[in-house]
Amino acid sequence: MSQNSRTAASRPAIRRLWPGDIPAFRDHLRRLDPVSRSMRFGGAVSDDFLEDYAAKWAPFGNLLLGAFDAGRLIGVAELRMLLEAGGVSAEAALSVEKPYQDRGIGDALLSRLIVAAQNRGIRSLYMMCLSGNTRMRHLAHKHEAAMEFAESEVKGTLHHTWPDVASLTEEMLGEAFGFTRALLRL
Asked: What are the DSSP calls for 130-176, one per residue?
């Protein structure tokens, strides 16, 4: 097997999460190590907080994308609509379990999330993180986000064009591929 074949075969499947996936989302959040939890939520959080966070994840206009390895949820990208901004802005958040970090999973999740945001007419996508979150800052820079630095936080803003045939097709194919992989695992 060639190196490219091994790499492609070992990439986690990415698909949209549905209400039935909320227990897997909760379990993923609970498996985050203390540093990853702190980087994701801006400080230390308890298991009870994560339980509540997952249970109250509101699907209205929001989107969760998950990366799966052998059927286990190992990474999540969250798109939260900012309703006070008239529905044209959203916030992005990422979490990847420690054993899977630095493998391009966060980048793949963010890339899919950016396309989904564009297809929903979101003009500005905000990425807030602690100033010490070098992984998130790297991803924001890689995707050409405008960066604003405060004392302990960094805000990255991505501006998008309107949906087009390419972005709609990309999301549709990604959804179809993820759905098909999930069905085949069953």
From this structure: ETT-HHHHHHHHHTT-EEEE-SSEEEEEEE-----HHHHHHHHHHHH
Model confidence pLDDT, tens digit, residues 112-126: 999 998 888 888 889
**Domain span at residue 127?**
3-185
| First vs last C-alpha separation in the chain | 26
Long-range (24+ apart) CB contacts under 8 A made by 76-84 are 76/17, 76/25, 76/28, 76/29, 76/109, 77/109, 77/110, 77/112, 77/113, 79/113, 79/116, 79/117, 79/120, 79/122, 79/125, 81/122, 82/126
The total number of structural domains in the chain stands at: 1
Structure confidence by residue, pLDDT tens digits, 6-31:
343 467 899 999 888 999 999 999 99
